[in-house]
Q: What sequence folds into this?
C-alpha cells in the first residue's frame, strides 16, 4: 500500500484517547510511550472511569510530569448505558483537536512514529484510518489460537476495506475525525449495547470513500491477550453478540466466509469418507487440497506482511481450531442471552 507524505505544517493535530478502568499498572507503562511520540501537535486524554486501584492518585501526581497527558475522572455512569461508550464519549467531547486516535490502556505502540504514520493516511476525502493491533506472542496454546483468530479478523476487515466494503475497526488502533462522530450522533444508535464502541460505530459510518487502512509496521499496536480460556471465551462471546447489529450486507458477507470454512472441513470429515474408493474421491480430494493450499499460501503471505504473529507451518492446524471455534460460538449465539453492563 502506498504511503502518503505530508509536511509537518499540513499534519493535523491529534487527540489520543485512552479509556481506563482499574488499569494503573498498564498506564504506568503506556503513558510515557504516548507522551514521547514524535509528532508536532498532539494530546493524550486518559478517561479514568471510577477506578479503585490507585489510577486517580497516579494521574493526579506522577502523570503531571508528562506534558502531553491530561485526564478526566468519571465518578458515576448513567444507568443502562455502556460504561465504555460513556467514557469514550466524554473523552471525545473534551478533545481539543479534530482528529482522534483511540487505543486501550493495555496496548503498547511499537514506535514513536505511531501517531505520525497513522495521520499521514488521512486526506481530504479520508475520515477513518483502520490500524492493526496484534497480541504479544507467547508459547501457550491459548495465545497461539488468539494470535491466529486476530490475524484472520484483521485479514477480513482490512481486505473488505480495500475492496470498498469497510465493516469494522479495532479500538486498540483506530483513527477518525471528531466531526464524523458528532455528525452520526456518536453511539446513539447502539448506546445500550455493551460492546461495539469500535466495530459498530465503524460499521455505521464507514464507506468506500472515507476509509483508509494503514499497514505500516511502525503503527502496529500490540496488546496483552487473555491468559485463561474462560476469560477469552466470554470476551469473544461478547464480541460476537455485537455482530448481530451489523448492516445486513456485512452480516451476509461474514456469514458466507465462516459458512464456507465450516463446509470445507465438513467436506473432509463427512463427504470424503462416503465416496472413498470411487472416482468422485479424486474430485473432492482435489478441491479440498486446492482450497487448503490456497488458504495456506495467502494467509502465510499476510502473516508475513503483518510481522508474522504465528508460525507459518501451523496455519492448517489453527484453521481447524478456528472452525471448531466458529461452530461452538455459533451454537452459543442461539442460546438465550442475559446482557450485563460490564466494562470488559
A:
Amino acid at each position: 500500500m502506498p504511503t502518503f507524505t505530508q509536511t509537518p505544517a499540513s499534519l493535523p493535530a491529534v487527540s489520543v484517547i485512552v479509556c481506563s478502568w482499574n488499569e494503573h499498572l498498564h498506564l504506568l507503562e503506556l503513558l510515557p510511550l504516548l507522551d514521547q511520540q514524535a509528532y508536532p501537535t498532539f494530546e493524550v486524554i486518559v478517561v479514568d472511569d471510577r477506578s479503585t486501584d490507585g489510577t486517580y492518585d497516579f494521574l493526579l501526581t506522577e502523570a503531571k510530569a508528562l506534558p502531553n497527558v491530561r485526564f478526566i475522572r468519571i465518578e458515576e455512569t448513567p444507568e443502562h448505558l455502556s460504561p465504555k461508550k460513556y467514557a469514550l464519549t466524554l473523552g471525545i467531547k473534551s478533545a481539543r483537536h479534530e482528529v482522534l486516535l483511540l487505543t486501550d490502556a493495555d496496548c503498547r505502540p511499537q514506535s514513536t512514529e505511531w501517531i505520525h504514520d497513522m495521520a499521514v493516511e488521512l486526506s481530504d476525502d479520508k475520515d477513518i484510518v483502520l490500524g492493526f493491533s496484534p497480541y504479544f506472542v507467547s508459547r501457550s496454546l491459548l495465545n497461539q489460537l488468539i494470535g491466529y483468530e486476530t490475524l484472520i479478523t484483521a485479514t477480513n476487515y482490512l481486505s473488505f476495506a480495500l475492496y470498498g466494503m469497510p465493516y469494522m475497526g479495532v479500538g486498540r488502533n483506530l483513527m477518525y475525525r471528531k466531526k464524523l462522530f458528532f455528525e452520526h450522533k456518536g453511539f446513539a444508535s447502539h448506546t445500550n449495547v455493551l460492546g461495539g464502541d469500535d466495530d459498530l460505530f465503524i460499521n455505521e459510518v464507514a464507506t468506500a470513500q472515507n476509509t483508509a487502512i494503514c499497514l505500516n509496521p511502525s503503527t502496529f499496536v500490540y496488546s496483552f491477550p487473555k491468559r485463561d480460556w474462560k476469560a477469552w471465551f466470554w470476551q469473544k462471546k461478547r464480541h460476537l453478540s455485537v455482530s448481530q447489529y451489523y448492516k445486513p450486507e456485512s452480516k451476509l458477507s461474514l456469514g458466507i466466509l465462516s459458512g464456507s470454512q465450516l463446509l470445507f472441513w465438513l467436506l473432509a470429515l463427512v463427504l470424503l469418507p462416503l465416496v472413498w474408493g470411487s472416482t468422485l474421491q479424486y474430485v473432492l480430494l482435489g478441491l479440498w487440497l486446492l482450497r487448503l493450499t490456497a488458504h495456506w499460501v495467502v494467509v502465510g503471505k499476510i502473516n508475513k506482511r503483518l510481522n508474522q504473529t504465528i508460525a507459518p507451518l501451523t496455519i492448517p492446524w489453527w484453521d481447524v481450531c478456528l472452525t471448531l471455534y466458529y461452530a461452538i460460538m455459533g451454537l452459543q449465539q442461539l442460546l438465550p442471552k442475559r446482557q450485563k453492563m460490564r466494562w470488559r
The mean pLDDT is 90. The longest strand covers residues 42-49. The chain has two domains: 11-226, 250-334.
